[in-house]
Amino acid sequence: MKCTIIGTVKSPVTDPLDIKWGEVLSEIILKDEYTSGLLGLEGFSHLIVLTFLHKAKFIPEKHLRRRPQKRQDMPLLGIFAQRARHRPNRIGVTAVEIIEIRDNRIKVRALDAIDGTPIIDIKPYVPVYDRKDATIPEWMETLMKDYF
After folding, report:
1. Cα dihedral 118, 124, 130, 132 sign
2. 3-state DSSP call for residue 116?
3. How large is the C-alpha radius of gyration of the chain?
4. pLDDT of res. 134
5. Rounded to whole angstroms, what are the CA distances from 59 to 56, 63, 142?
6. Residue 123, CB-side half-sphere exposure with 13 Å CA sphere
7. How, if at all, do strands 65-66 and 105-109 pair?
8. Rounded to whole angstroms, how far apart are CA atoms 60 and 148?
């Protein structure tokens, strides 16, 4: 299996920490050969960004079942019930707001990726596909209260 890196993240965040990502402005910088693929994206307000979590490491004994953010007030959960970075396949998925598109750069808000993170793909956020009517458990509401 081969995965093509189409660009990188330029972010003020350099360490993989659980911070208030909703306040972070960053840029997706595409490789020049992919710039023409941005045509038509200006009509969308949001993107789905797929990243390669290059600094993450998956240790099954430690990460397969864990408490989110190591918080004791959170239930013990499997990795597939979480959005944690330490995963069997280090793929990140985030819906972000588009702030500006210029040349090969997309300025976005709320991309939870550190500076230098490789970009695998970007897709427009389309509500009919991406479901605004989804539900989440109560513990996730608590966990995300101050995250964004």
Report:
1. positive
2. coil
3. 16
4. 81
5. 10, 6, 26
6. 13
7. unpaired
8. 28
